[in-house]
Structures are given as structure tokens and as C-alpha cells.
Input
Amino acid sequence: MILKSDKMRVLFLVLFFISSIVPCANSKELFEIKRGVNISHWLSQRYDKCPPIEQGMSETDFSKLSKDGFDHVRLPVDEAVLWNEDGRKNEKTFAFLHEGIRWALKNELRVIVDLHIIRSHYFNAGQEGKVNKLWTDEAEQNHFLDLWGELSDELKQYPVSMLAYEIMNEPTAPDHEDWNGLVAKACRYIREREPDRMLVIGSNMWQGVGTFPFLKVPEGEKQIMLSFHFYEPFLLTHYRAGWTDLANFGGNVHYPGMLVSKGEMAGLADADRKLASRWPDEWNKAKLASLVEKAKKIADAKGLTLYCGEFGVYQTAPRADALRWYSDIVSVFAEMDIPWSVWDYKGGYGIYTPDGVPQKDLIRILVPVDGKK
Output
């Protein structure tokens, strides 16, 4: 004979067991990440020397990244790649987007789909003499929202615990409020379709830490990650990068310490000395941390995760100095509990060469064998 109290005890144990193996229907699935890699120049920023899209990435690439110790990829996509000039979806390239996501998920990599460049907004437009119509044309803003509507229709099939959306890469609005207003519209638009999807938003003007105080998070939003990009000091990270005003810089650069020593500064040509004088301070881990902390304090105050969506050093920089910088910035991220995604996989900042050879010295800094960073 089973007493009433025994029956209750059995019922409690059964319910406890069921709850332990079946997630609560109302519980939020978490999109949690730590270390990632940007898959550049595949579905975004395609240039003449890029291999055909069908040859640019394969499941093997995602398997390599997973085995190397990364847990997610940031996947930039461009409007011009996914949509034809007439506005119709390019079914072929959308198929590759789905393929990339499936390859990532199969290899236990989460994915951030980043709308990188749209026809009405390019983050380097000002430097290249082009005008971003997004900030002055309401029709272009509505078109931007429509792009997200179509992306959501395509991607909502993937679990919210495995896929996130980055609303736009490196906005460069002439007024911070222009960006804040578009963020609010985009969040409302996507939330009507996907209330629980993690959304990634960055601050205006290339997602720099200095503009974080001006970023407004839409009221009531909690499924948000705040994203910043970090390329400081630019003289090191973009040393002799061909698309910058440092392309023909004639001096050396060092890290840590003074980027250009006093003796070297005196020997520079006037134009090079003027460039180098933009970075007069000593650079070290403490200096990097003081900059990152500006964004971290704001994210903490809002109760949101801070994410570094891009950081890296261009391949033309002195290797030993670059590796010391990587070691310091990754340590800063670890100490501040900041997830990150390095720029990039096989491009000019690559952790792999274009031929697929791993840069083992860099990868071991990013993902140490002991797993502490």
C-alpha cells in the first residue's frame, strides 16, 4: 500500500526527471560564444582575385576552425552578392549562405550573419569619395528593412541558440541619432518576425570604442550584444595597407613602446613624420585595456554582453610586433570576459594563408593549448 505522501514523492521525482531532460518551452535558448573568426571575401567584399564563390569555402574550412578551438564564425554578406541589381534574390548565392551555415553548425560552430555592405551604405564611402544615401533617403532605409525581412524569412529556420544577426557593419552616419533611429526601426522590424533572435549592434563611426556613449539600445531589448571593432593603434594594425594613407609610410613600427622611436622619427620624411605624429604615446597592454574599458563599462551598465567583432594586424606589419600585440589584446579580452572574432580567415589579416596553410604562431596565441585565454 502506497501512502499519499509516497505518491506525492514519486510524482515529484518523475516531474523533476522530465524537467531535467526536456527544456521548458518558455525558456530562452542562449547564444553563447567565446572565440571566432571572420569569413571574409566569400559572400562579401569580393574583389578580382577572389576565387569563385563555389571554391571559396568548403566544409573542410569550417572543420579546421572547429578543430583549432574556435566556437563561432562571423559571416559577412553583401547586398550585391545576395541580391541582383533588380532587387531579386540571387538564389545561387543564397544557397551558398545556407551551405555555409549548415557546414558551421555541423562542426559545432555558431554563426553571426553580418550584413556587411549594402548598396546605399559602404563603411569606406567617405574615404573613396562616394556618398551613403542610407542616411538621407527614407526609401533606402525602408529597403534596408526589407533586406532584413528577406534574410529573416530565409534564416529563421535555424535555432536562436546557434545563429545571430548583426544588423549592419560599421555604420558611418553623419549624426549618431541617425544610426540610433535606424537601429530602433530594425530591431522592431526583426522582432515582429523573431522575438528571441540574438541581435548584434555596434556604435556609429566604424564601431569604435570612442562612440559607444552615443549608442542607444532600443528600450526593453535584452537579446542584444553590443559590438565594437578594435584596430588600435592604426599605424601598427594597418601598417602599409594599400587602401589607407599609410600605404607608402617609409618608417618602421614597433610594439610595445613608442610605435616610432624618437631617433627614427627625426629621420623620417616630412609626410611620414606627420603621419607618425598621430600616435605619440607609448602603446602597451595597459593602453589597449584603457581603450577597451570605455565600451566595457557601458555594456556592463546596460547588462549586455560586449563583443569584439573585428580585430587584427595586416600582413605587412613586422611579425614579431604584431604577435606581441595579438597576445596583449587577447589577454585584455580574456580578463574582461569579452568574446571576440578575429579578422580574418584567409585574407590579408589571415590566421590561414590564402593557400590554406595555418599561421600556427598566431593561432596558438588566439587559442592557447592550455585554453586559459
